[in-house]
Amino acid sequence: MRCVQKFKSTLTKTSVLVNRSPTVEELQQAKNILIRIAQRESFGREIDCLARRQPIPKNSKLVKITPIIDDKGLLRAKGRLENAPIDFDAKHTIVVDSKSRFGQSLVGHYHTQLAHGPVDYVYNEIRQRYLVVGGKSAVKKFSQSCLADQVLL
Predict the structure, then answer these.
(1) Residue 3 forms part of a structural domain
(2) Structural domain count, the chain
(3) Per-residue pLDDT tens for 22-79?
């Protein structure tokens, strides 16, 4: 992200401080960019259909979840919590494919952060913010291949 900003600043002749830590906003922007890239790779056809206000193909993995695109360009799941008094991110979780590199990294991050917890626990924590297509099997597969988990058994 910083490289992109530095490149943009050289083009526009504005200065960017290079020797500072990234701000929370910069980190959030970088995460959103990575998510959009991963979503475009996995669900490009569906995103194009939604952008043109057309129905998504019947053979899509997303046909059951009623996907929407938010104001940041992220693909989200529109769910039954539409009228619940909770924040937008909890109502409309970000859709990620478990087979994408981002999805695999996300599963690995949560698995490690949650102290190599049980599959259901890790999956439920991921579901607070993300809808990972094929998520439960991805968490199970990651857990089975985790060397730390094998040592703990």
Answers:
(1) no
(2) 1
(3) 899 999 999 999 999 999 999 999 999 999 999 999 999 999 998 999 999 999 998 7
